[in-house]
Amino acid sequence: MFVTCLDLEGVLVPEIWIAFAKATGIPELEKTTRDEPDYDKLMNYRIGILKEHGLGLKEIQETIAGIDPLPGAKEFLDKLRAFGQVIIISDTFSQFAGPLMEKLGMPTIFCNELVVADNGEITGYKMRCEKSKLTTVRALQSCGFETIASGDSFNDLAMIEASKAGFLFRTTDAIKKDYPQYPAFEEYDDLYEAIVEAQK
């Protein structure tokens, strides 16, 4: 039995931090896991900038309320879920993901938690588990599933590498160049066909 494991941001929905950077006019917040492979370093950097500007969870959630899935994403996900099991494995946070999951038809998502003070300040975060994407794929495999994985960033590479088949989707030219062994797609139809073919 197969499970398809998908990244969220950049694959199914726009990058939340980039949208928030544009909404606030703070370009430093545009940095994502495409740019910084060290997630702890990236999140501490983001939290520092939020503190510096007096921004908290409320302001980010207001931006998220206006974010829609990428064009064609829900249709792709509906089609894929009708074909087989799908889990979204993301390094985002439950406080961010909720409204987006509603717009995607409430798929299963494994993500992390923000630590938020009573005044709404984001003071830290809790990872669901260490190396969450790779650990989750390994756990699924230990339960007898074969995994197929797709994502766009550095933090997706471990789960892609560990899976029976792995695909890059709308990634950067640099990642495509450094990881030519993984087919790279730009369109949902092509990714869907590759996932279906990998299960034969």
TrEMBL record:
It catalyses: O-phospho-D-serine + H2O = D-serine + phosphate; O-phospho-L-serine + H2O = L-serine + phosphate. The active site is at D7 (nucleophile), E9 (proton donor). Gene3D superfamilies: HAD superfamily/HAD-like, thrh gene product, domain 2. Keywords: Amino-acid biosynthesis, Hydrolase, Magnesium, Metal-binding, Serine biosynthesis. Pfam families: Hydrolase. Pathway: Amino-acid biosynthesis; L-serine biosynthesis; L-serine from 3-phospho-D-glycerate: step 3/3. The keyword Amino-acid biosynthesis applies. The keyword Transmembrane does not apply. Substrate binds at E15, R46, S90, D91, K133, N155. Binds 1 Mg(2+) ion per subunit. GO terms for molecular function: L-phosphoserine phosphatase activity; magnesium ion binding. GO terms for cellular component: cytoplasm. Its cofactor is Mg(2+). It comes from the Bacteria. Its EC number is 3.1.3.3. Mg(2+) binds at D7, E9, D152. GO terms for biological process: L-serine biosynthetic process. PANTHER family: PHOSPHOSERINE PHOSPHATASE. Belongs to the HAD-like hydrolase superfamily. SerB family. This is phosphoserine phosphatase. It comes from Pseudobutyrivibrio ruminis.
